[in-house]
Write a structure and sequence with these properties.
Helix content is 38%, strand content 18%. The chain is built from nine helices and eight strands. The chain has an eight-stranded parallel β-sheet with strand order 1-8-7-6-5-4-3-2. 45% of the residues are buried. The model has no long low-confidence stretch (mean pLDDT 95).
């Protein structure tokens, strides 16, 4: 049976109280902290770096931190994020000069490695590099900004990625990022995803209400995932 994990994206959190925000979503039942790193070069936005990852660890966050690098070049920041406490480090293959080398670098630093595929990027890289991959992340929006709508054709891409992973016999997580919410998480799970990044759907719910709403949003997602699991 799928081991479903929910990974709130701190891109949508209140950065003035980031430590408390992360504590709240983990207390509400989230599994992984998703960490979006943007460089205003590979993607049109500028976000956060290793110091924030390190600060969360020093704050007391012990959950896995999933660092998604939307930067170019990639390799220079890998050791910094590993030292700062990253659990997974994923990157876009087209942003690396040598994909195999970058995957090995991530593993050599003691982290799990992953490839990220934009909506229109083919999965070809995965065929050749799968032996060094611990996570496949499919973007269901174009990277750069939170709050975008899910791109429907990525469901077919999820099914294709799931077939590749299953055929490999390897323990590889299949993550989805972009527009995931209570209304569509079951459909996304049934297409093959087992790890779900949700930013505005979780953190945005509390902007005008009690932070305890995180409990109800994540519980609602779990209910939909249970339905997908029973249908599997």
């Amino acid at each position: 049976m799928p081991d479903y994990k929910i990974a709130p994206s701190i891109l949508s959190a209140d950065f003035a109280r980031l430590g408390q925000e992360v504590d709240n979503v983990l207390k509400a039942g989230a599994d992984i902290v998703h960490f979006d790193v943007m460089d205003n070069h590979y993607v049109p936005n500028l976000t956060i770096g290793p110091l924030v990852c390190d600060a969360l660890r020093k704050h007391g966050v012990t959950a896995e931190i999933d660092v998604h690098l939307m930067i170019k070049p990639v390799d220079a920041l890998v050791p910094d994020f590993a030292k700062a406490g990253a659990s997974y480090i994923t990157f876009h293959p087209e942003a690396s000069e040598h994909v195999d080398r970058t995957l090995q670098l991530i593993r050599d630093q003691g982290c799990k490695s992953g490839l990220v595929f934009n909506p229109a990027t083919p999965l070809d890289y995965l065929e050749w590099a799968i032996e060094k991959v611990d996570m496949v992340l499919l973007m269901s929006v174009n990277p750069g900004f939170g709050g975008q709508s899910f791109i429907p054709y990525v469901l077919d891409k999820l099914r294709a990625a799931r077939k590749i992973i299953d055929a490999s016999g390897r323990d590889i997580r299949l993550e989805i990022d972009g527009g995931v919410k209570v209304d569509n998480i079951r459909e996304v799970a049934e297409a093959g995803a087992d790890t779900f990044v949700a930013g505005s759907a979780i953190f945005g719910a509390a902007k005008e209400s009690d932070p305890n709403v995180y409990d109800s949003v994540i519980a609602a997602m779990r209910t939909e995932l249970d339905k997908a699991q029973k249908a599997a």
